[in-house]
Amino acid sequence: MPSSLATPAVFSGLQPAVVWAHFATLCRIPRASKHEALLRDELLAWALGKGLHGEVDGVGNLLIRKPATAGREHSPGVILQAHLDMVCQKNGDSAHDFLRDPIVPVLDDGWLVADKTTLGADNGVGVALILAVLDSEDIAHGPIEALLTIDEEAGMGGARGLASGALQGRLMLNLDTEEWGEFYLGCAGGLDVNVERPGRSVSVAEGHQGWEITLHGLRGGHSGVDIHEERGNAIKLLVRVLRHLEQDFPLRLAALRGGTARNALPREASASFTLRAGMGNALVARVAELQLLLRSELLGVDDALVLDVSPCAVSTVLTAEEQAVWLSTLHAAPHGVRRMSRQVPGVVETSNNLGMVDLHPNGGSCNFMVRSLLDSGSAALADEIVSLWGLSGTVASRDGYYPGWTPNPSSALLKTCQAVYKRNFGADSSVQVIHAGLECGIIGAKYPGLDIVSFGPTIRGAHAPGERVEVASVARCWRLLTAILAELR
């Protein structure tokens, strides 16, 4: 039973204790996307041990039902929804293994943080809040269905595979947003563009020496939430560096790798290549100049950027033609905000993230994650990217489309949430639309008429090492969630 296991000292004294005890379980058990089974199975056993109904559906989502408390049997059924998986990002000097090692959080001035890895507060705190509702005996509520999905961060596979007849409730509280005091009523949809191109290696020319450049020190972040801040993209920046170096040196590219998650802004990238022997001093000096240039351009945003250069072993390189295709196309490929919304001021309408690249002499691949509040917007931008790669005969395919969540300003559930918030906290809440993707759009499409509202605690730096959650906002979320459940009669 998660809440009865020994809780690490960092959680001692944090309130509400029942929420943090469950979050400690989520930190203890690895839960990378597509590797949620160990956690899911433990939570299922825990639920069954409490006498709750629990089941795993055909794609691996966990559904737990809890009956209404006495006298609330005729209250409307409420679906509480969050996802089990987390984005796994770490600093280059971290030996953390996300498939084996527990997350090790620390307290820092009222925030719970993981210094060198992601914390998994996205969406672990939402899961912990739901488990606490299932665990508690002293809160009033109608029938509860807890839907804990898998694979949200790697393509929303759990929500996609959810059967249309699995849920009975007509109200849903999604607990996967990251700004306390805001209720979310809509989100972007999107799709992926996946690029694959074969190659042919050639041997290193006689008298040439191998070198490696690594770009690191960027902040990274969530490719939906942080895309408008114009933080550095390690892949795009390193490609630009290589293009500069091509003008000064007879550079022959051997490999280019960057990014580890489609929905995270790439923080690090590296490239190996060859130059004629004896050009090392000139290379080091030019790289130092480029580092100063990039730092000045990213001043106040990502000016901790570092370019390291060192000798390395290289046995084969790309052909000159393949090098030209990859560096030119990656350099020309879009990344970042394409358009701001005219309907929702201050919110990004359409964007894309060049999130991963893996290039070697025998071929390569890269991924673009496209988002938009308009389905036509994401389709148009994806088509531009596919067309760009098509100029060189490169295969680029669209995959993983998911619909946006269309706002319903007349939502009765929203009005209840706003009233409860004001009564409990003495202030008005705000209503937002988020550029990040939530599962609400997919689930809502499967259950027409489902009334959905999303909220959550304050989380900073999701999808990047140093991710943190404000402890006090978690307590406020618990107070709000239990008050909403009691209000819904």
Shape: elongated
How much helicity do the residues have? 25-40%
| Record field, number of beta strands | 25
* Main CATH class of the largest domain: Alpha Beta
Helix-strand category: alpha+beta
Mean pLDDT: 96
How large is the share of residues in beta strands? 25-35%
Distance between the termini: 30 Å
Number of domains: 2
CATH architecture descriptor of the largest domain:
3-Layer(aba) Sandwich
Give the topology:
Layout: H1 17-28, H2 37-49, E1 53-56, E2 62-66, E3 78-83, E4 106-108, E5 111-113, H3 121-135, E6 144-149, H4 157-161, E7 171-174, E8 182-187, E9 189-198, E10 201-203, E11 208-216, E12 221-222, H5 234-248, E13 252-258, E14 264-265, E15 269-276, H6 280-297, E16 306-311, E17 316-318, H7 320-332, E18 336-340, E19 348-360, E20 363-372, H8 375-390, E21 395-402, H9 412-425, E22 430-434, H10 440-446, E23 451-454, E24 459-460, E25 468-470, H11 471-487
Parallel strand pairs: 3-6, 3-7, 7-23, 8-22
Antiparallel strand pairs: 1-2, 2-6, 4-5, 5-25, 9-20, 9-21, 10-17, 11-15, 11-16, 12-14, 13-15, 13-19, 18-19, 19-20, 24-25
Helix pairs in contact: 1-3, 5-6, 5-7, 9-11
Describe the protein.
There is one protein chain. The chain is an alpha+beta fold. The chain has two domains: 2-188 and 404-487, 3-Layer(aba) Sandwich (Aminopeptidase), CATH 3.40.630; 193-402, Alpha-Beta Plaits (2-Layer Sandwich), CATH 3.30.70.360. The chain is 30% helix and 28% strand. Strands 9, 11, 13, 15, 16, 18, 19, 20 and 21 form a nine-stranded antiparallel β-sheet that branches. A six-stranded mixed β-sheet has the order 1-2-6-3-7-23. A four-stranded antiparallel β-sheet has the order 4-5-25-24. A hairpin with a 7-residue loop joins strand 18 and strand 19. Helix 1 packs across helix 3. The model has no long low-confidence stretch (mean pLDDT 96).
